[in-house]
Write a structure and sequence with these properties.
Number of helices: 11
Strand order of the largest sheet: 2-9-6-7
Strand content: 15-25%
Number of domains: 2
Distance between the termini: 8 Å
CATH class of the largest domain: Alpha Beta
Number of strands: 20
Amino acid sequence: MALTNIRLGDYIERSTANNSDLKYGEELITGVNSSGVFAPPKGSTLGVDLKPYKIVNNGAFVYNPTRLNLGSLAYRTEGLCIVSHLYMIFYLTEEGKKIIDPHWLYIYFHRDEFKREVTFRNFGSQRPEFNFKDMSDIIVPLPDIDTQRKYAGIYNAMISNQQCYERGLEDLKLTCDAIIENYKHTSIKRNVGSLLREVDCRNDKGIQEVMGINITKQFMPSVANVNGVDLKKYKMVNDGQFAFSGMQTGRDKCIRIALFNGQEPIIISPAYTVLEPKDNSIIPEYIMMWFLRKEVDRLGWFMSDASIRTNLDMDRFYEIEIPVPSHEIQKSIVEIFHVYNERKEINEKLKAKIKDICPILIKGSIEEARKEA
């Protein structure tokens, strides 16, 4: 067999096995994100009825039928877990295992061409949902299994290298966090009000693009409609300055603050506060590192508890204390942080390249199989 068109449903079987006996607990709950990997659920699972949750073993394909067009499909290799009853789960049959390499099939699913096919098949549906019948009807141009394994091996090698790089990245972050933790207990603490001062420069440069801050403490294009709005009233943020918003800190359990690094200034809503260091004794990146810590977000959430609108008022924000080591130590910590951010950027580029190579590998395997026909 060089290249054969198969109906996928002839080689897969659905699993509906669930956790009805409550054998498995909350610690085994996972989901599938749009990157095609298993990830912890975003929402709280406290008090959730685990009986309907489906059991996933190694070798299972798991997908969200309402988000498959976005890439929400993963292949399980990390051991048993449980997923929401809304997910679809299927395995290769014994016959399927003889002719289909599961890693090759996973790559096949993670191409834009497949996502477009899902979108096309869902067209006209009131509630687009790619069920198991739809998956079964997929026609796959299948190379021989040796060719599949060859190209799947290339993909797996790239994934292995990227994951190795990512583990080193996390080790670097742990080192950075450990250093900060050490100086948290040995350095003099100063409140934010003694470190930062408010700056109010309005948009006199005619800047049109309005930015906001997301919960990851990064600047992003504002989602607010600014048509007809006088942007001259908006505040400018320059290199080395912070933008802060105390709104909904309690709701989001996140202090929305971001440090801007850029040659040209940006503008933000007048509702935001722009801040900068009062003197050179503090490095802005060091302050930002402190606000990236989860414990600080929890503190902000606690401090906003007395607010009717769950806001973190400016006077309360200024009360937050930050341990401030010497300038030289701050500089050393920031340098490690810069290395971490640079490597994090490289890692994201690696993941993007791996994603982009999926259609190339599938096309290569199909063309090689055709040549052998």
